[in-house]
Amino acid sequence: MISNRQTILVVDDLPENIDILVNILRSEYNVRIALTGQKAIRIVRDVDPPDLILLDVMMPDVSGYEVARILKEDVGTRSIPIIFITAMNSPEDEQKGLQYGAVDYIVKPVYPHIVKARVHNQLELKMHRDHLEELVHNRTKELELTRDVTILTLASLAETRDDDTGGHIRRTQEYVRILALELSAKPKWTDFLNSTTIDLIHKSAPLHDIGKVGIPDAILLKPDRLTDEEFNIMKRHTILGRDTILRAEESMLNRSASGFLRFARQIAYTHHEKWDGSGYPQGLKGLQIPLSGRIMALADVYDALISKRVYKPPFTHAKARNCLLEGSGSHFDPDVVAAFMACENNFRQAALEFADFDEEREALSQY
User: Fold this and answer.
1) pLDDT tens digits, residue range 225-248?
2) Residue 249 and residue 308: Cα distance in Å, rounded?
3) Cα–Cα distance between 247 and 252 in angstroms, integer?
4) pTM score > 0.70 for this model?
5) Measured between alpha carbons, how far is 76 from 188 in angstroms, rounded to an integer?
6) Average pLDDT for the chain
């Protein structure tokens, strides 16, 4: 059926040249035409772009070289193969055409069997390349899903040993994403907090308390206030978390693929550091604390405040907000607190969506 045919765009300012190529190709392909370079660019950027372009070089409005340059610089069109068909027949001309990204170069006058063979070969190559890209894409998505499930599984394991709940993981992960997006709009953080970095921080946030697996139950589950000695042991969950993730990082053959582990390690190790240097385990101060840790610090404390615990009822959002404001410049990075204030309703909505208990929903509904 015609709808299943591959589409070829023929671009030439002379109708007689177009007629020749259309007659050669129309029995096997859908053929579209453009008499100018500008129209060719519009057609290629359409929702249904061609599979291959036959492109003249000498055109009055925009040269074929310029059309090729524009299309190859556009991520949405650069994969479409271009074959130059031109009367310019010197080796220098052919070399220039290939430098502009063409996959082939045919000199006029054209011979039907040569045009058909070269078009067929390039379309076959494109089909195999597209198939390979699809396989790589699917495999990448599969690996990402496996990674995400593994992270949540490990994080859930850590939470089963604490009085935190499964909702804590989902809520804090969403808070981190909200804060990172808000901060990314600020000039100070635009370059660092790109979409990839935000995704990595968001995906790695559930591992912030993975080190609690190594804390004895007698301390981790103690309902009363910890002694100084017990608290010092509790503090070690940040170090245990860092070391566990670091070992996973070191076991990866492709270190460049372990970006999410790097952020997970930073978060696990530094989310209890405080802006004024009074936190743990290192007593880092201000910008010494990685941004991911500073974001997680606020997310973790907010969630602890609005959550029901055996030793306290859930705070209202307003009460939790006031606690964060009081901690700005001492416990928390003032920029992170400002970002929270700018999107606080999104925090509240996330807390409501993933709340574990009716008491928490009731407190959050009081705003």
Assistant:
1) 899 999 999 999 999 999 988 887
2) 35
3) 9
4) no
5) 30
6) 89
CA nearest neighbour of 222 among 310, 314, 305: 310
| pLDDT tens, position by position, 78-109 | 999 999 999 998 889 889 989 998 999 999 99
Q: What per-residue string of b and e applies to 146-174 under the rule 16 or more CB within 10 Å gives b?
A: eeeeebbebbeebbebbebbebbbbbbbb
Cα 212 from Cα 209, distance rounded (Å):
6
d(CA 98, CA 118) in angstroms, rounded, equals 15
For residue range 170-221, what is the model confidence (pLDDT) as tens digits? Answer: 899 999 999 999 999 999 999 999 999 999 999 889 889 989 888 998 888 8
Q: How far apart are CA 83 and CA 24, in angstroms?
A: 15
pLDDT score of 321 more than 90: yes
Q: pLDDT tier at 135 (50, 70, 90 boundaries)? A: confident
Q: How far apart are the C-alpha atoms of 332 and 175, rounded to whole Å?
A: 15
- The token pair at 40 is 């060719």
Which residue shows structure tokens 């001309």?
93
CA-closest candidate to residue 325, choices 309, 348, 302: 302
CA distance 154 to 174: 18
Task: Name the DSSP class of 319.
Answer: H
Separation between Cα atoms, residue 234 and residue 240, nearest integer Å: 10
Chain Cα centroid distance, residue 155: 21
In angstroms, what CA-CA distances link 324 with 30, 172, 288, 310, 329?
63, 15, 20, 22, 10
The rounded distance, in Å, linking the Cα atoms of 261 and 9 is 46
55, 68 in Cβ contact below 8 A?
Answer: yes
